[in-house]
C-alpha cells in the first residue's frame, strides 16, 4: 500500500512540476501585451547608469506586442507644457530564444535581451535598459 501511495505521489508531483507558466498562458509568448513606459537607464561604454523614472506624461507611452509578430510603439513627450504623442512606430518582433528578442522597424534590425519580472518587462539593448509595466 505504501508503494502505491509513493508512486501516486511521485506521479502527481511530476505532473505539477512539468506545468510551466507558458502552459498557463496557453503557450502564448509573455511579451504579448500592452506595456507602459516606466523608466530608462543609459548604457555608456558598457556601464549601466542610474535608472531615471519617466514623467507622468512619458508613462502614457506604450509598447504593444501582438500575437501576429507585430508591435506598435507610442511614445509621449511634454512639449510646451502639453503631453503629446511623439511619433508612432510600427514594426515586427520575434523571440530568438534564450531571453533574446529581435525587433525590426524600417531598416533597423536590433536584438535585445528581454526579462520578465512579475508585471514588468525589461529590455536591455546596447544603448539602454528600458523598463515597462502592464
Topology summary:
Blueprint: H1 2-18, H2 21-24, E1 33-44, E2 47-48, E3 52-53, E4 62-65, E5 70-74, E6 76-79, E7 82-85, E8 89-97, E9 100-105, E10 108-117, E11 120-124, E12 128-133
Antiparallel strand pairs: 1-2, 1-3, 1-4, 1-12, 4-5, 5-8, 6-7, 8-9, 9-10, 10-11, 11-12
Describe the structure.
The protein is globular, with a radius of gyration of 20 Å. A hairpin with a 2-residue loop joins β9 and β10. Mean pLDDT is 85; it is low at 1-23. The longest helix is centred in the N-terminal third of the chain and has 17 residues, at 2-18. The protein has 2 helices and 12 strands, in the order ααββββββββββββ. The protein starts with a helix and ends with a strand. It has 134 residues and is α+β, with helices and mostly antiparallel strands. The strands form 2 sheets. Strands 1-4-5-8-9-10-11-12 form an 8-stranded antiparallel beta barrel. Strands 6-7 form a two-stranded antiparallel ribbon.
Report the biggest beta sheet as strand number plus sense, adding barrel if it closes: 8 strands, antiparallel, barrel
Rounded mean pLDDT score: 85
> Cα-atom Rg, whole angstroms?
20 Å
Q: What is the overall shape?
A: globular
* Portion of residues within helices: 10-25%
Strand content: over 45%
Strand order of the largest sheet: 1-4-5-8-9-10-11-12
Q: Which runs of at least 5 residues are low in confidence (pLDDT < 50)?
A: 1-23
What structural category do the secondary elements indicate?
alpha+beta
Task: Please name the defining characteristics of this protein.
globular, disordered N terminus, 134 residues, 12 strands, eight-stranded antiparallel β-barrel, single chain, alpha+beta, 2 helices
Amino acid at each position: 500500500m505504501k508503494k502505491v501511495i509513493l508512486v501516486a505521489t511521485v506521479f502527481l508531483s511530476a505532473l505539477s512540476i512539468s506545468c510551466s507558466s507558458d502552459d498557463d498562458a496557453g503557450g502564448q509568448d509573455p511579451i504579448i501585451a500592452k506595456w507602459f513606459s516606466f523608466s530608462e537607464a543609459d548604457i555608456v561604454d558598457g556601464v549601466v547608469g542610474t535608472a531615471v523614472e519617466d514623467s507622468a506624461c512619458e508613462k502614457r507611452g506604450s509598447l504593444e506586442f501582438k500575437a501576429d509578430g507585430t508591435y506598435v510603439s507610442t511614445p509621449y513627450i511634454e512639449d510646451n507644457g502639453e503631453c503629446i504623442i511623439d511619433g508612432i512606430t510600427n514594426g515586427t518582433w520575434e523571440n530568438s530564444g534564450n531571453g533574446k528578442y529581435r525587433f525590426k522597424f524600417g531598416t533597423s534590425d536590433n536584438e535585445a535581451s528581454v526579462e520578465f519580472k512579475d508585471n514588468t518587462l525589461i529590455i536591455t539593448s546596447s544603448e539602454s535598459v528600458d523598463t515597462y509595466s502592464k
